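Contributing new records

If you add data, match the layout below exactly. Sequence lines come first and carry their own label; structure lines follow with theirs. Keep one chain per record. Anything else will be rejected by the validation script.
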Amino acid sequence: MKKLLCTFAVIGALSVGTTAFATVDIGITVRSKPIATDSPPIYDQGRVLVPIRAVSEALGAAVDWDAKMDTVVVRKWSQTIKLTVGKKTAATETFGNNSSSSGPISLDVPAKAVHNRVYVPLRFVSEQYGYKVEWKNNTVAIESPLSDKQRDALYTGDLAASRNLVMEAMFSGTHYEHTPLRTLHESEDYSTAFLFPEGEALRFFTIEGNETATYYEYKDDFLVATWQAHFDGSIGDSFQLLLEEKLKDRTGPTPKIDKPLVFYSRGIAGDSSTEESGLIGLDGKVTRIGFEHTVGGSVTDSSGKLTVTQPDEVRKEVVPIPQN
């Protein structure tokens, strides 16, 4: 597949009723920053089309052109979009934890080749990757998926509240930098443990089923799994195996653990559940702060206090907070 030589473009959802391929004076911004383009927007079938190579690069997507198939391929994270010149459908493929999905998506207007440029829908591409797209002040604005209120809560809010937000996001909106590893449950263990560096909420490990570790980071308002590994939980404590890097496989270099890890874990078996919270030192020593076991909704055993933060823990993030 050869690198795309022509400039990629996008179709906004603005309805305009004018001659096809007329040039227009329209700006493009990504997170409020103007994006330079090397060819002007055009109208086609009552829609505004604008160049997208600069846009795709601003979104961090890789772009390829298959001349034989007249197909543009866009890749970001473990998600792929394929658009073929002349077709009103796009093919998408997304890999997730223990799952993958693919299928055709309808477009308002087919992808086109105009004046040695390939044009494809902006709103479609941007929204497929989770961005918000707005039309305002004669500008196509590609914005963060988060509202200002959500960003404030995530980046500068109470540490416990921020950790709860990212734990919820892990189950509902994760992207993968590499093709995801399959989560193993060979020992029928369906627990999930969250491990946060002391004072932080924006990067963390999870251990699922005592056999699969994942490292997450917030990048430009998206939760991204940047590393994964399997280990044999039957030969020792999963926390210690992670600290010692006794891994069966991995997707890249293991992230450095440079602070004690605050942990919260929850496991469910039938109608019973177990929750634990505490601190893991750099030497692997585990200090349990809270514990609770329930059966049928009733607490049968408990000690301490379950919490996602440690007493007097102060928030000290190291992940850069993206600009609005």
